[in-house]
Amino acid sequence: MMPADIVQQLDPIFKAKSVAFIGASKTPGKWGYRAIERAINSGYRGRMYPVNPGGGEILGLKAYPDVLDIPRDVDLAVFTLPAEHMPAVMRSCVQKGIKGGVVITADFAETGDHGRQIQDEIVRIARKGGMRFIGPNGMGIWTSAVWLNFALEPAPKPGPLAFVSQSGTFGGSLAHIANIKGYGLSKFVSIGNQADLKIPDLLEYLAEDPDTKVIVLYVEGVMEGRRFLEVARRVVQRKPILVYKGGASPEGARATLSHTASIAGSNAVFDAMCRQAGILKAREVEHLFVMAEALISQPLPRSNRIAVIGSGGQGVVTVDALSNLGMRVPALDDDARRRIKEVLPPHAPVPGNPVDFAGGARTALQEARVAEQLAQLDYIDGIITNVPTTFSLARTVGAAARVGIEGAELLASIPEKYGKPILTQRFRAHGEDLIINILQGAGIPYYTTPEESALAMFALVRYGQIRSALEDTVGVLDD
Amino acid sequence: MMPADIVQQLDPIFKAKSVAFIGASKTPGKWGYRAIERAINSGYRGRMYPVNPGGGEILGLKAYPDVLDIPRDVDLAVFTLPAEHMPAVMRSCVQKGIKGGVVITADFAETGDHGRQIQDEIVRIARKGGMRFIGPNGMGIWTSAVWLNFALEPAPKPGPLAFVSQSGTFGGSLAHIANIKGYGLSKFVSIGNQADLKIPDLLEYLAEDPDTKVIVLYVEGVMEGRRFLEVARRVVQRKPILVYKGGASPEGARATLSHTASIAGSNAVFDAMCRQAGILKAREVEHLFVMAEALISQPLPRSNRIAVIGSGGQGVVTVDALSNLGMRVPALDDDARRRIKEVLPPHAPVPGNPVDFAGGARTALQEARVAEQLAQLDYIDGIITNVPTTFSLARTVGAAARVGIEGAELLASIPEKYGKPILTQRFRAHGEDLIINILQGAGIPYYTTPEESALAMFALVRYGQIRSALEDTVGVLDD
Q: Which of A60, A146, B91, B109 is the most buried (most CB within 10 A)?
């Protein structure tokens, strides 16, 4: 499919100027009520048309007995009514000229043959009528393009991360956690049974989406494997794709069967597919967001040679974690050691890699200056540093806080200036909000454990490798 | 050494009725001030004697020019004065009859030959005078036995976890994070250079300590490897030992050299040592606390057959994580499925393992009843369940909240009643505080990711295996 086609086909869903709620309900707590409530709460400014045989008013909006009664054009229909009624209303929607659908209703293919028949029928109706739809058996979507949300509670913050999930409730939980941690979402899509639109369609659309920088997937089984591979290969040339696969173990695979009517398939095949496509796989589900945060904001390193700034055990553990992921932590040359020593307090030990400040005697500004020295070394490709956490900063405003701000600003300037990523790590949880706000505002990721920052650096290095390999060749990549 | 000896020797440190602060300072921020400030803030009720040549008053306490001027007995001396002065004051302390020491001062063996000579000298003085000490080059200790803290800011909550760290600052950060997450500490010991007291001594003491249920170690290199192995083998028969080893990678090992003057040693040797001793190794540093929380409160499972309660993706990912750790997730027999089905709402799917509630239609009480059914099965050894998070609970008090409380209470009664561990997992972060408080009060651990709860269950299973193996034999255990 040409990119222009998919954009044209999916824009009625993700940039809907008007929405009909098919199966709207006056009963709080019901899906037919909740979908409208969430759309209002997310700040959607388009036109909203509840459709309910009883008419009247729902959440202050005029309700129409039939979708054909709606006086103006409708881009998107959201379906929350029982499966048996779906074919008839889908026909009306097509007749009305609606081009986008989100089917939240369950009891389709995931429940057996009867459900599958209804599902096949609504696909035929939509295909014939030129409608594309997401679902059924999903939790809906969020799209920051028009601030429209049916899926998440509370509504997420907008941001550059698109999250497509094959599990609705779990995907919603992940999206919620992501939001608490400060990751904004451009899209959330609970894809459900993928009766019509499938993951490859969404990948094609998200590749073109200017609001999306990184694509995150939770999948349990892949439909149209060959197309998934082909599309993903194209997309990762422009944006990273991160995936977590549920049901990777035999016992987990058994559990997915009853869940999304998808066969998990061989994990080895899926792994090979990801390698060939240049998709980054997450070993734990939260790692998706750890890796995404770095990929959103940081330049890609040329290679895997990392410098670490961190005292004592924190430096040691960061180096261990990097090393476990195949990163290198080169020793510094004498000239570099001398220049870094000049920045440090007199009693600091001779700097190595990690650069050890020897306990608390450091300031944010010294730390940032050390980072800048490291960024200038041609054998260092990226830097991990502790967010400076001097006690003085935690306790005072004034001079110490100013040094902290200056340090954070200097640190935040380095990635662009030297084309090398900087990741920070805040281990203590008090007294750093000021600096973290500055870092976050400047797009410098911060993490709470050495393992997380090492993993994020690994993702940058790996995606850098994937990008250069894809530029050079179409060969299979090694892990 | 006989247990009685080590208790007698270390009680002056960990149950000190009086403390002399050698090198006390009137300058806020200095170690000689901070140690006293922290002791006061932690609620220490023993006698405190600042020692400073200038005399006068420090933080409202009368300061003595010399330790020999203190009119009453002193159990513990805390040293914060420069290394060169240490031998002389150590002699005075021994003369005073002080039996315990904590040397926070740095610039000993970790800085080279001169420092090592001073370190050796103070060890000789202490040995001769019958004093045992922790350090030098450490951050001090916390002991809940007498609410005495020099090391941590803020002071930790008391609890059953003893944490011994070879890295001071990092150990302090870990202890702080542990506290934020609600893990209380019986002891925190920053062991520094281990000039006199070494990890095996502390293990022997902690084995006897009634306040300690689980022992957590951050080590970079092990001194007295053979004794460590022998002591650890004895201790794990009574209490679990969890360890994270910094410097496991070659580059990390290089970093430890300048840090704690310890040679990291071969990781393979250390691994073998842990296996032989029955010590649980953590792959990531925060996993120490994840595993400890379960070991503190839960009965040990007889084997590795786990049941999971969790909808959709959350159940799937939990099963994957368990499977990756070698746990089994047995299918349920027909009779069990029927009995569980009776507890569930009518439209719930036929229960498998994981037991899937199909979306939001569940209550805390239903979940707890399912857990109890599972606990009665002779082929299930432990249970992981989601903390119930119905929206109704988040939004209302009254009936729904009552059902939640009943459910939590029932859940919390299961481990003791059936001798099987229950771990919970709370993925959403709102609306569950009430139930979580009840669970926590009843000693039911909760985790924030499926991977964490699976790892905690693994730790219980593994420690159960270690305990039974140690009861049977002294042979080497397999991983």
A: B109
Burial bucket for residue A318 (CB in 10 Å: 0-12, 13-18, 19+): buried
The verdict on residue A476 lying in a domain is no
Q: Between chains, do A317 and B349 touch, taking CB under 8 Å as contact?
A: no
- Which of B153, B173, B251, B327 to mutate to probe the A interface, most A CBs <10 Å? B251
Contacts of B451 in chain A (CB under 8 A): 284-286
CB of A414 within 8 A of CB of A382? no
Same domain, A279 and A308: no
The first and second tokens of residue B125, run together, are 């003085």
Are B53 and B89 within 8 A, CB to CB? no
Question: What is the number of structural domains in chain A?
Answer: 2
Domain ranges, residue A426 = 299-468
Query: What are the tokens at B428?
Result: 């959403």
Q: Which of B176, B250, B252 sits opposite A316 (nearest CB)?
A: B252
Q: Which residues of A touch B256 (CB under 8 A)?
A: 316
Enter the ipTM.
Answer: 0.83
Residue among A90, A58, A65 at smallest CA distance from A77: A90
For residues B162 and B217, what is the distance between their CA atoms, to the nearest angstrom? 8
Longest dimension (CA), chain B: 81
pLDDT digits (tens, 9 = 90+) for A173-202: 788 777 777 789 999 999 999 999 999 999
A392: chain B residues, CB-CB within 8 Å: 29
- Predicted confidence (pLDDT) per residue in A7-65, tens digit: 999 999 999 999 999 999 999 989 999 999 999 999 998 999 999 999 999 999 999 99
CA distance B388 to B402: 13
Return the amino acid letter for A137. N
Q: Do B21 and B47 sit in the same domain of this protein? A: yes
Q: Residue B252: its chain A contacts at CB < 8 A?
A: 316-317, 319-320, 323
